[in-house]
Structure formats: C-alpha cells, structure tokens
Amino acid sequence: MANPRILAGQNAAITGGARGIGRATAQALLRQGMKVAIGDIDEELARRTASELGDNAIGLPLDVTDRASFTAFLDEAERELGPLDVLVNNAGIMPLNHFLDEDDATARRIMDINVHGVILGTKLALERMVPRDRGHIVNIASQAGKMGTPGGATYSASKHAVIGLTESVRGELRLSGSHVDLTYVMPVVVQTELGSGLPENRVQRSVQPDDVADAIVAALRHGLVDVSVPRSVKHLNRLSAMVPRSIAEGFIGLTGADRVLYDPDPSVRHDYELRVATPAGELEAAPEAPELAAPAKPRARRAAKS
Predict the structure, then answer these.
(1) What pLDDT, on a 0 to 100 scale, did the predictor assign at position 256?
(2) DSSP one-letter code for 92
(3) Which of 110, 252, 279, 295 has its CA at a distance of 20 to 30 angstroms from the CA of residue 238?
C-alpha cells in the first residue's frame, strides 16, 4: 500500500492481552496513538497490565470460549473507548505432548480456545464492523499452522484452522463488497512463557514478542493478509514447496526444526503447563496442557490456552 494507514485515534481490543504477545501488541498500538482494551481470563492481571501501560489502556475479563463473556468484553470496550476498529484474536494455549500421549480433554481444550475462540471473536467483531464497512481483524496463527510440527499435532491443527478460517472469511467479505480487512500472523517460536523450554534450531531462531507486535502494526498500516515472523521464513516455506518432499524433510531434519516441539524441556515448561491445565488457565498465544506426563516422555502433559 503506497500510503500507510494512520492508526492514531483508532480503538483496538486484544484477547489474551495481559502478557506475552498480547501485552507487547498493546504497547505497540498505544505507541501508534491508539486506545486499547486488554481482555484476559486473568482479570486481575489484565487490569494491572492496563494500569502499567497508561491511561489509554483498559483491562477487562474475558473467556474466549464463552459467547456471553466475549460479547460483554466487546460491549464494554466500545462503551469505554468507542467503536472498535481492530480486534486481535491472540488468546491461545500450547500444551505439548506426543500425539498418542495427549488426553482427549487437552485436545478439546486446545481446539476450544485456539479455534472456536477465534471463530467466536471473528463473528462478534464482524457483526459490529460489517455494518460500519470498516475495521480490521488480526488472527494469531503460527508457522506450526503452515508445516505441522511433531510434538504439537493438535496445536498445529488448531493453527491450520485459524489460517483456513481467515482466508475463507476474507474471501466471503471480498465477494460481498465489504471493506473490512482480515490478517493472519504466523510467528516462529516466540520467547514467551508459551514458548519456554523449546530448543533453538539452525535456521528459524526464536523471536521476541515485540517482533510479532511490530509485524501486527505493519499489517494494520499496510493492509497485509498473511504475515510471517520473521519475514525470511516465508521464503523458506516457498523454497520447501518447490523441492521434493524427501529433500525438504532432510533439510528440516538437519536443521533440527522438526524437533522444536518434540523435545521441550519439561522442567522449564512446568509452571506454564500447570497454569494452562485448568479451565481458568490462560488466554495468551500458546499451547494447552493436560496433566504432567511421566518423566519418560520428552514432554509434559496438561489439560486445558494469545
């Protein structure tokens, strides 16, 4: 886009906004002159984060799996800030386990938060934005949603779903003549609690929450649709798609990229896995977990999480 959009004066709502990517995004949008509503399952932390970020931020309770809660969050955000111009669907969990060791409750909770939470938020935001014929929804996906990552099968599936949802809804809006924008953001491992205890690989180094936040700002200013963080990863994805699968998989194996979610450090992830194990867990961009698996397994299990 030749002329970047001016974000100053706009209003945004962020799910799972009390920490990690959500908090960094709130800070980045505030620097652009926006007002921000931070929604989180941890109401106290949401309010504390908003207080720390300044007068143009408010913290509100939010359970993205509950329609009444999500509606109340958006209603209150608009009551205090004005009509919403931006919704960032960031809430998510990433409990890690090998597929056959993952319990059904964990799988359901990952999908409930990471997929149905995004579906619900997108619907509720569009109900407000479409009649006004303006607005921008940003859905946080993952590079795991592009390639499918061993050790995080259900998490990868949830992020595949976010990408497919965003593309499909964007197509519907385009065909209907709507000017509401949709974006999906696909970071590699981010240095947050959700990404804790994961090994580095030789090609895709982890990034900081601020890197993702800056990419979100760029997407809002330039109307971008699919955003990789870092941008270089998009070129690697294209290259992988051009060569035979055996060569691509061999390269991935050499770099260690296929073991990033497969071999986490359970001791480092312990606190995160415990926190997202309960229904009142967390809404940040991350995995969900069932109950800590036996030490024999390379990862921890937790049930039931931007």
Answers:
(1) 73
(2) B
(3) 110
DSSP secondary structure, 177-236, as one string: T---EEEEEEES-BSSSTTTTPPP-SSS--B-HHHHHHHHHHHHHHT-SEEEESTHHHHH
C-alpha neighbours within 13 Å on the C-beta side of residue 233: 24
Q: Which residues are catalytic?
A: 155
Q: What pTM does this model have? A: 0.87
Q: What is the DSSP string of 248-279?
A: HHHHHHHHTGGGTTTS--HHHHHHHHHHTTST
DSSP category for residue 116: I
| Per-residue pLDDT, 258 | 79
* Partner residues linked to 35 by β-bridges: 11
Angle at 27 between CA 111 and CA 67, to 5 degrees: 35
What averages of pLDDT result for each successive group of 10 residues across the chain (306 residues)? 88 97 98 98 97 97 98 98 98 96 95 98 98 98 92 97 98 98 96 91 84 98 96 75 78 77 92 80 40 40 38
Domains of the chain by residue range: 11-275
Supply φ then ψ for residue 39, to 5 degrees.
-110, 135
Q: Of 1, 12, 73, 18, nearest to 209 (Cα)?
A: 18
Classified as helix, coil or strand, 59 is: strand
Domain 11-275 -> CATH class:
alpha beta
User: Kind of pairing, strands 226-229 and 86-89?
Assistant: unpaired
Residues with Cβ < 8 Å from 211, sequence gap 6 or more? Answer: 187, 190, 229, 230
Q: If we measure between CA atoms, which residue out of 52, 32, 5, 33 comes closest to residue 17?
A: 52
**Residue whose tokens read 């970020």:** 53
